Amino acid sequence: MSVKGALIGAVTALTLVGGVAAADFGPIPADYESAVEGYFSDRLSDPRSARFDYRSDPYQVFADLKGYEGLPCWAVDVRVKARLPGGGYGGYVAYTVLFLEGEAIALEDDVARMVRA
């Protein structure tokens, strides 16, 4: 590798790192478990009986969401087990919940693209 190639690679790496460092993710969501459960309460037929299994602490992602590209968000991975219309429980279903400014705003299913920071 030439010196010129090494310098170009170093500048590119610093530019990428600088872009991540410059992004404003805001503070880590406080009481994210309650926020996730509240977010699902409008989406489940019997939210009080739902069971939540948190698979991660909040982590940083860049999301493409409804006209916003590279939106810096926090994300939490959770599995949800909810009561079915017949009264029994289904299996756990995995979700990623996105947070912006401390509020749950979307599920991974609502996102065009998501990249972990």
Assembly state of the chains shown: single chain
Main sheet specs: 6 strands, antiparallel
Bulk shape: elongated
Rg from alpha-carbon coordinates:
18 Å
> Proportion of β residues?
35-45%
Classify the helix fraction into a percent range: 25-40%
Quote the average pLDDT. 80
Count of DSSP-assigned helices:
2
Summarize the structure in short:
Helices cover 26% and strands 36% of the residues. The protein is α+β, with helices and mostly antiparallel strands. The N terminus is likely disordered.
Structure characterization notes:
By secondary structure, the protein is of the alpha+beta class. The chain has one domain. Helix content is 26%, strand content 36%. It is built from two helices and six strands. Strands 1, 2, 3, 4, 5 and 6 form a six-stranded antiparallel beta sheet that branches. A hairpin with a 2-residue loop joins strand 4 and strand 5. The longest helix is centred in the N-terminal third of the chain and has 20 residues. The chain is elongated, with a radius of gyration of 18 Å. The N terminus is likely disordered.
Write the layout of secondary structure elements.
Elements: H1 3-22, H2 32-41, E1 51-54, E2 59-65, E3 68-81, E4 93-100, E5 103-107, E6 113-116
Antiparallel strand pairs: 1-3, 2-3, 2-6, 3-4, 4-5
